[in-house]
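Entry 14. Ran structure prediction on the chain below.
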Amino acid sequence: ASQWFLDEVSRGSLFVGHSLSYDTAVLIANFPELTEAVFHCYETNRFLCTLTWEKLADLADGCFRFKTLPNGKRTKKGYSLAEVYHQYTRGHMNKGEDTWRLRYGELIGTPIDCWPEDARSYALDDAKATRAVYMAQQRRKPILRDVYRQTRHDFWLRLCSNHGFMTSPEGVSKLKDQTVELLTQLRVRLTEAKLIKPNGVKDTKRAKALMAEVCEEEGIALKLTDKGGISLDAEACSDSGNELLKAYASLTSLATVLNKDVKFLSDGVDAPVHTRFNIVATGRTSSSKPNIQNIRTLPGIRECFIPRPGWVFAQADYDGLELRTLAQGCKKIVGYSNLGTALNEGKDAHLMFGAFMMGISYEEAVARKEEKDVKRFRKLAKPFNFGKAGGLGNKNFQAYAKAPPYNVLLTIEEIRTYSNMWYELWTEIEEYHAYISKLCRNPKKLATIEQLFSRRIRADIPYCTAANTYFQGLGADATKHAGWLITKACHSEPANANPLYGCRMVNYVHDEFIVEVPEGPKAEPAANELARLMIEGARPFLPDYPATTSPLLMRYWRKNAERIV
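Output, structure tokens:
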């Protein structure tokens, strides 16, 4: 098998597979001598994943993750080989538990000629189905310019997931005890307030009555459920500003931590935690089963994740990446960016807008940055810099600013005033929004965009989604290219050429990378190489406003960690 693969590589063959990253990860795990050839094939566009192809094609056709039935209704679309094969051919594949699908380990060491007939036929049927899907996809002919790059990214994300995260028994035990204590305190408090009945069940009737009373007193619009009832979800309780309602919402969140998060974290003590990465509509990734890209903010959860014995974490995240991608998008689309100029000059964009709102110079704001008023206006600047670029209207922006992590209360009149100032400072964004509006001037009032640099197509999206997609997608392309360079250095660039060789990535969180590196003198060079490759990987997508980052070494995952060397 090893020699066959190398022969096909030398012939220049194109290798096609559905969820191809799984096959190639298994290949290098069992035949490590093929690692260089596998990375070479990915880098030279010799691997094509029909699963990735299908998702990108649906994005380009405006039907990502759904299909339209003959009666005009939409239904969820799956992307398994069996589902995609049926879509194109109307044929059916038997993927039941009575097949050889999960039994091939029994045949390790057995020549193929000696396999049972149904074991051979199952494998051949998979290959034939994949070929049928590939041929049908070629006839479909959407505009796909990003499929090989995304196939590459799926591979390095698979390797990251395969290696997995370990957790600390002490950290998990501490988190569990802390959560139980907080839950106990909340239950006592909410029982005294009669929001929990004597039998321990939530009194939703009283909670809804309190929500209605608080919203009426504060002049806040009641948030309703889909069925028209009063909502008691976390967002509604937070928006109310009422401490009892916030505690009521926290009860559910903490119970989830105890019943769900603590369980998967406990599993990671004995064996690695493996997530599943998937591409989402913007080009970014999601993480599931478990989600380790969107860890709850409760203190102690991140800290449960630790490196394997003899290793430490090298971690780095980009400095203000979304501001840089916004600036680069404006530069590419409207020709300039005041925001980008400020970033290249090393200025703090939040402090800069905060100073503008205060009516003082940036230099004065820097000199007074520890003062209460300056800090307040810098905090106020953040939701504008991150939220207004996506085209939010004033009412939606009000809710956005009020929610975590900003927790900023603004009247509609204040939002109007500060929005005008924001557009005055970053004049390019008004032109950018005008460009997005022009894209939406059609009967459907939906835009089709071509992502900058990668040229990935996303069709039939509303105004705010289009405004966000340009810079969020650009950030995804930049970081995922960096992830490819980092993974290649870890797996296929020998130690005499790269200090990351032999290291392994354990997590990728949109603008953050965490890599296990050897403890000791090799740790710092590996961490510095991680940062270098992050900047190098982002460069093709941020040519005018280069990315910056600073690496850290840590013994467990945490925000705002300090160097350990």
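The mean pLDDT is 93. Will compare against last week's run tomorrow.
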